[in-house]
Amino acid sequence: xTTTLSAEVPPRLMEEIQALVDAGWFSxxxxxxxxxxxxxxxxxSGELTGSFIREDIEWGLRGAD
Length: 65
Hints:
The chain is mostly helical. The chain is built from two helices and no strands.
């Protein structure tokens, strides 16, 4: 199952995306965006997890206020 995502993309970035698709690096713009999001999440998961843990600890020590 998939979910549709809508995003506004600057014209220059859209040109680069289309160029990569046209060059055969990706079969579609959708494939490129999914791959880019996956790589971003994979490369930042440690940072994000650490940030969430720090926020939870902060909340636990001081409450929601």
